[in-house]
Amino acid sequence: MDIVRLLAGRQYRLFAVVQNGSVQVRDFIDSIEEQEQAHFFALFDRIIEYGPPKNTKKFRHIGDKVYELKTNGGSRILCFFGTNFLKNSLILTRGFPKPKPTQLRREKQKTLKILNDSKNLRIIKI
């Protein structure tokens, strides 16, 4: 599985999963309203400089080593913590608008599949 580095700061690095030559998280962010984009960019800046927020309205564990980044408007990005050579990193996997419970479960399962294959992550440049 390929990943691409999105941002790096003093404390953390953010990577995104590449599937079929596309970065779904980047495509999702490009598709949402500017206000929602600004919320995510502020959250990303905070994470790379200081680490993940303690505020569970912005960043929370949803089980099985999967976390979600949230905006006030309800948009979500699922992620997990990097290991081994990716310490102090978050791997962003899926972005989507405010979900219904069944969609959140489906998206979490997709993220778990990537997490289970995370030993084979390879950093590429796009």
Automatic annotation (TrEMBL):
Q: Cite the Pfam families for this sequence.
A: Gp49
Cite the InterPro entries for this sequence.
HigB-like
User: Which protein is depicted?
Assistant: Toxin RelE
